[in-house]
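User: I've been trying to design a sequence by hand for this structure and keep getting stuck. Would you show me what you'd pick, starting by listing the structure so we're on the same page?

Assistant: Good idea, let's start from the same input. This is the structure you sent:
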């Protein structure tokens, strides 16, 4: 029966129907829901791994054991998994292994806008690229066939628009493949130099075979048009833009396998049109391939390699009038993202700003500590970089010792912060790391992690003790504070900064949005006591505003954390009476 599905849900359905038995991932927008939907199938073992490298290595292990496996991540997560990725290309697989990677053109929730297609070419792995949910399901199943036929891991490239849009799919039944047995094969799976040298030619032979397959593959299809003065090569969500913009006006070569791409098929398509254009987001990946084939093609001189495209942009850049946009008469004020009311991170950043510290930040909800009025963060690079960066900063700028800290969340610390902390302990920098433990992976939608005590399916499991872990790697000074107690937080931070040895402060309070967290209820403002000093506004809480020169509390947002009460010198804010 046909139904609407998110692209990510369709991928999960596809791997289920293909007989996938093992999924290991790390949450990252826009890929997260693939694993969450996969976990709903009892036949699939699904887990959150500490990071993407571990997830891919675990998925490879399951493939080695003879079970079809899957691993999902966002584009920057593929950087973390790149180490095993490139060598798995040499070893090949036993049972099918599919790697889902979701790009984020437009940077809706990412720190960069990299194009994952380059990884497919660099690692010499096939990559499929669906343009809607129906293809996401179908391509997921096809990916396992290719994986086992050509002895290779297969990349499945999603993007924000395909991952998070709905379209019609027709689910099928789950079909279990013939069970593959594990057989010891040192020459194939032990990548010491002597063996790796022999495997490289296998990779090149495989790539040529996949190029031949791409020439006749149905997922690389030519759609005829009425006007052959122009031909368009495209893929993914840009295919949707092209079809919406032009319908059947121009011939279209729609690529479903983005690497390796066909050669003769593209040449034949180009020969049938007067002009050739490539419509693609981010880098000119398809365009470069066409130019390598000696074709005259228009591409990035028309379409930017920054951000997303749109139907109107496609029309306009290819010489057709685009409909005028509709604008509102009223000027709608901007709504920049802020930490939620009651967020346990807010008070920590207020204290850090008050102390005028240099703060090396990390990836997570707490990145919003960079937003005014807090403006407390100096850098944000990638997962774990706050801790590693702090060590280098302190070592290189010794007079700044006692004036710099790193902030990192509990999930991010487990992901890649702990290795930076080991470096701090081993190489002895007087660095203070603040772990913002909100008992969940917050930014991507409340996923469990190794510090929460629950696994992906919500079952109780081993809970990593952050205090013990920090001490085990060589940090003797480990303190735990409640971020709602601002006075204690400030004194502890000052004490640890003054210490002439590495230290860790764990700021522990659950995310205010967790369902099990009970709040005391909103505070009240007393307009007669309020002097309009706006001290309470300095924490940037969305529940507080100034009305007629007086602080006003939005009771629908306020959870009663009490942080604003600690800032008011006139006792104008307090518990409901």
């Amino acid at each position: 029966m046909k139904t609407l599905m998110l692209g990510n849900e369709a991928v999960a359905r596809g791997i289920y129907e293909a007989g996938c038995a093992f999924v290991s991932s790390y949450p990252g927008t826009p890929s997260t829901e693939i694993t969450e939907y996969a976990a709903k199938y009892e036949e699939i073992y699904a887990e959150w791994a500490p990071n993407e490298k571990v997830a891919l290595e675990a998925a490879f292990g399951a493939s080695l054991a003879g079970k079809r496996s899957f691993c999902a991540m966002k584009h920057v997560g593929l950087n973390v998994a790149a180490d095993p990725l490139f060598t798995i290309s040499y070893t090949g697989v036993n049972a099918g292994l599919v790697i889902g990677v979701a790009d984020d053109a437009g940077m809706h929730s990412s720190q960069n806008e990299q194009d994952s297609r380059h990884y497919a070419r660099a690692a010499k792995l096939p990559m499929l690229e669906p343009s809607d949910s129906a293809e996401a399901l179908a391509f997921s199943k096809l990916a396992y066939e290719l994986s086992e036929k050509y002895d290779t891991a297969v990349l499945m490239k999603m993007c924000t628009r395909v991952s998070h849009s709905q379209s019609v799919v027709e689910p099928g039944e789950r079909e279990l493949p013939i069970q593959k047995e594990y057989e010891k094969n040192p020459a194939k799976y032990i990548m010491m130099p002597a063996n790796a040298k022999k495997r490289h030619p296998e990779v090149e032979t495989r790539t040529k075979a996949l190029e031949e397959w791409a020439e006749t593959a149905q997922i690389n299809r030519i759609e005829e048009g009425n006007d052959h003065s122009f031909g368009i090569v495209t893929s993914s969500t840009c295919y949707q833009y092209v079809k919406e913009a032009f319908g059947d006006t121009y011939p279209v070569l729609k690529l479903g396998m983005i690497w390796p791409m066909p050669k003769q098929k593209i040449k034949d398509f180009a020969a049938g049109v007067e002009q050739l254009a490539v419509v693609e987001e981010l880098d000119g990946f398809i365009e470069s391939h066409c130019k390598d084939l000696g074709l005259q093609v228009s591409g990035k001189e028309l379409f930017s390699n920054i951000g997303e495209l749109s139907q109107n942009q496609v029309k306009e850049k290819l010489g057709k009038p685009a409909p005028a946009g509709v604008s509102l008469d009223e000027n709608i004020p901007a709504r920049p993202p802020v930490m939620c009311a009651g967020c346990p991170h807010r008070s920590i950043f207020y204290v850090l700003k008050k102390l005028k510290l240099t703060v090396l930040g990390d990836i997570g909800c707490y990145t919003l500590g960079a937003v005014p009025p807090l403006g407390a963060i100096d850098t944000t690079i990638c997962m774990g970089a706050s801790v590693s960066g702090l060590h280098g900063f302190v070592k290189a700028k010794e007079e700044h010792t006692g004036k710099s800290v790193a902030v990192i969340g509990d999930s991010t610390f487990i992901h890649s912060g702990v290795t930076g902390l080991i470096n701090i302990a081993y190489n002895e920098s007087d660095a203070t790391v603040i772990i913002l433990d909100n008992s969940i992976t917050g930014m991507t939608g409340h996923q469990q992690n190794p510090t929460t005590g629950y696994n992906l399916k919500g079952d109780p499991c081993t809970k990593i003790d952050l205090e013990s872990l920090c001490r085990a790697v060589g940090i003797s000074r480990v303190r735990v504070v409640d971020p709602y107690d601002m006075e204690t937080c400030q004194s502890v931070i000052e004490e640890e900064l003054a210490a002439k040895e590495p230290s860790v402060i764990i700021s522990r309070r659950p995310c205010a949005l967790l369902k099990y967290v009970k709040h005391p209820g909103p505070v009240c403002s007393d307009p007669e006591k309020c002097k309009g000093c706006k001290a309470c506004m300095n924490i940037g809480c969305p529940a507080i505003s100034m009305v007629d020169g007086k602080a006003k509390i939005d009771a629908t947002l306020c959870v009663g954390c009490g942080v604003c009460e600690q800032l008011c010198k006139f006792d104008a804010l307090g518990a409901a009476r």
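That's my pick for every position. To get oriented when you compare it with your attempt: The mean pLDDT is 95. The longest helix spans residues 193-216.
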